[in-house]
Structure formats: C-alpha cells, structure tokens
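Appendix B, Record 12. Input sequence as logged:
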Amino acid sequence: MTLYIAAYDTEAPGCLAATRKIVEVHRRYQMPATFFIVGKTLEANPDEYHDLLDDPLFEVASHTYSHRMLRDHPFCGAAVTGEDLREEVFRAKEIIERIFERPCVGLRPGCSFVDGLKGAPEVLALAAEAGYSYVSSQLWGPEYTLPAPLNQAFTYADDGYPDLWELPGHGWHENLLKGNNHWKPQRMLLWPPIMPEAIPTKHITSATEEFDINRVFIDRAAADDLEFVSLIWHPWSLDRFDPDMRMLELTFEYVQEKGLPTGTYADLLKVHTV
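Logged structural output:
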C-alpha cells in the first residue's frame, strides 16, 4: 500500500510557534513526520526544537544551513559556491546531530528543483561526503510549474552516486497555493495540466479547500499503488493560513480512514537500503 509521509520545511522564525501546534496534532493522531529544518532556525531555538521533535514519531533532517540555493533557481536565485556551498550542505547536519544525538540522513535543499540534483556533480559529491543517504530535492513539475507530479524514488547512479537516493515531494508548495509568498507570477501552471483536478481557479481560502486538494494527490497515489505520497508544507505558512490546524486534522483523519501506512522519509529509505 501507498506510504503517506507528512513533511515540513521548517525554515523561518515563525515556524517555532507553528511547530508547537503541529506537533500537538501529530501526537494526537500518532502520525509520524519528517521535519526538514534549516540550521540557523534550529540554532536560534535549540532547546525548544529539541523538546518538540525529540520523539520517536519524528525524523529531523536538514533543510540546509541558511536556505541559500544549492543550484540556480528561476524563482529563488543563484546558487552559492565554494565554501558557502559546503557550509549549506554540511553545517545543518552537524547541528542536528549534535542537538538530537542521532543521525541526520536526509537533505532537502531550499526551494528544491525540477530535476532534483541530476547534473549537479559538485552538490552530489558534497552530499555523499557529508554522509547523507537521501536527498529530497525534486519538488516541481516540468519547467518549474506546479503542482509537482507524483514522482517516486530513484538513485543518482547515472551521476555516479548509486547509494544516494532521491525521495521527491508532491503537489503544491502550499505557501504558493495560498499566495503567502506574494510572488509574481503568483501561479506557475503547466499547460495542458497534468492533474487539472488539483488546480483551483484562485488562491484557496479555507482549510477545507486545502484538504480537498490534498485528497487528489493521496487518492491518485493510492489508486495507482505508488510507493509513497508526501505533500510540501511549511509551518509558518500553515499557521498564518489555518491557525487551528484544521487542514492537518482533516488530512490525517482521511489517511487513517483509507488505512494507509504512515511513516517518515527515513522509513521510506529503509525499504530501499535494508
């Protein structure tokens, strides 16, 4: 059956208060999650995040040290190079492992990319040197459109790293679905769309509307018997839009009603490496 993975890009000061609410919902539903956390964000409140996330339910993975780009991105800017690139890849992992006293096996780059890290040999070399077992860096549709399709796991064997896995993310970057970033263009849509049923006519305005879009991806993944589905969420944005975290409740209830197994990205990795 399709594994459902809840995951959060934990990247800004506003994420701490939001994460408190998110963790409460997860514990209530006994729902695992992966928290990809920016090193600077963790450094700013190490004790608070340790108390929240030091739990068998949760994986803590890297979202780079300061959310600078690991490769050029059309919306988020140019890649850092040299020692700055090394710092982004290495330093958050070191901070996570020191604070949580457990391995950090995954890396999700800031913003992520349409092709993941394919054709990025310097970044792949650093990820392998740092000791990551997977990256989650493919989070866009063709030509940096949204939503991201239901891409599944693969290795970077073609780039020379057969032991480094790519575990993508799916659907909308929910902050863009709501217009929370105030980007222009506000919408980045492929024509013709791959999943028209997952594209609203305007920015969503309620937790129910967000859940209805989540359900499209969950249902499609389950119907196609895909290995996993994981949506792209940001604590600061979830809290700004839905401070009661009703969308999380609706989504978790639906996953449990469908009887889908749940886990983390690290759990998915084990299926491929054990």
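The chain has one domain: 3-273.
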